[in-house]
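Please annotate the following for my students:
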Amino acid sequence: MDDLMPVWELESIFPGGSGSAELERWLAGLAEELAALQKSTFSSGSTAQWQQRLERIQDAAARLSEAAAFVSCLCAQDVQDDRARLLNGRLEQLRAALGGVMTALDEKMLELGDDRWRRLLEQPEIAPLAFPLAERRNNARKKMAAFQEKLVVDLAVDGYHGWSNQYNLIAGRIRIPWEQQGRQLLLSTGQAANYFADPDPAVRAAMAERWVRAWADEAELCASVLNHLGGFRLNLYRHRGWDDILEEPLTDNRISGETLKVMWAAVEQNRDILREYLRRKQGLLGLQELSWFDLDAPLGKVSGEYTYTRACRFVMEQLAVLCPKMAHFCATAFQKRWVEGEDRPGKRAGAFCSSFPVSGQSRVFMTFAGTPANLSTLAHEMGHAYHHQVIADLPFLARRYPMSVAESASTFAEMVVADAAVRRAATPEVKIALLDGKLKNGVSYFMDIESRFLFESAFYEKRSSGPVGVAELNRLMLAAQDKAYRGSFDRYQPYFWASKLHFYLTRAPFYNFPYTFGYLFSAGIFALARETGSAFEERYIDLLRDTGRMSVEDLAAKHLGVDLSRPTFWQRAAAVTAADAAEFLQLTE
């Protein structure tokens, strides 16, 4: 494989970037179609009219998703792109219009009696959408009257979602001063985060000091945004008659509260060995104290040796062992420049994968600096891209899978790559370093994610009585971290609530537990893959194709033969991480 360019190609989607004339025409046409849908009516008793309506809605939704994915890529690659930010505002208006169309559809579905509704779903033209339509109808019964829900959608554009966009502006303008080889740099948060994987503890500590200071300087504004988001959500839930803050996230993730409780119980029972791992790592690093910024500190010589091309090749080679079709897909994506990995200023922090449903493509965003963590991120995001690919031929509404299983596909790819690397390690030292990489993921999903869940739960409890100040948010964050990490660190990050984008996402409330769910669910899938061997991939593809067409409990029962409301599956999945930790402890005695 020739050297690959770590800069994505967007011109084939909409040429001209944020000034694209083709994108302008696309948005104008979409606005006209949504306006027409809002004005038009149809007979709820006619199967043909239902079919036509659903086809138009799905086409509009796919076109909106295409444009939104493109604009999100523009905003991520250059946080100073003012035209892209303005396009985001237009997209919010279009989302509101589509939301109104969907609410009107919900109203029509509720007009039908249960018998007529069942007969409609049995019609061959409608049956492929039976699950998502039935789900929407059931969820609509839990909400306010249609005219009230439409008003909420409209007001949320400049209220709820507007505050989320405000946070993006705050985070995007942060620049962290840094001196490197005599040069004065101003780093984006995405660039700065890579320094936490530096082998020099003084470098990590210095960057942590600047990182915390940068977010502390913006904390008042971040707290204001978080309080407005929380207040909006709480008031909306009150008017809907929901008294459980997890009502929406559980529904969105298609899992039950009982399943979530059983999952967290398995995490609790298997977390102590990760505390032992962290303390062992502290000793291996020769640190008097272990701080939050030491988690990504490298062990061994495999760290920091990856070029972008080598990382891409490594991901493909490891995936090919169990999933040759996925490996082939990755090769195509890398060659076509679907990945934005360049380490440069002006990019936003974090990583994501965007799907373009009309053009049938994906784009992966990250900042690649050659660390093992970057390698894991690359595999993770390519897992998302592959998920998009295998469901691309399904009706658009049947592709809308929940975050819980979205993170399963990505984490599975990450696990395949990491496990294959460990098994092929040439020396015990290399194996230790690679196990360290896997266990850092375990710490993230067993500890970090729970700290976010605990913080957000505590925040909403406090917010129900009024706005929460910066000092109290820091206290809640530190308490959540100490409980979830079981005192594993000597120093925690009080401003993590400000620096983590996920707390500010309005499309996915409680965007935390789906990661742990996905990690453990993928561990169960991975165990099946190792048992099944080369025959596994077709079964895996079948599972992915059903992720938008059934609840997660039903998905697990059908494709894995397990009951997610029982502890057996979760304990077996958690044992995968516990076994890695035990091997690490044995090798480092």
Q: What stands out?
A: The chain has a mean pLDDT of 93.
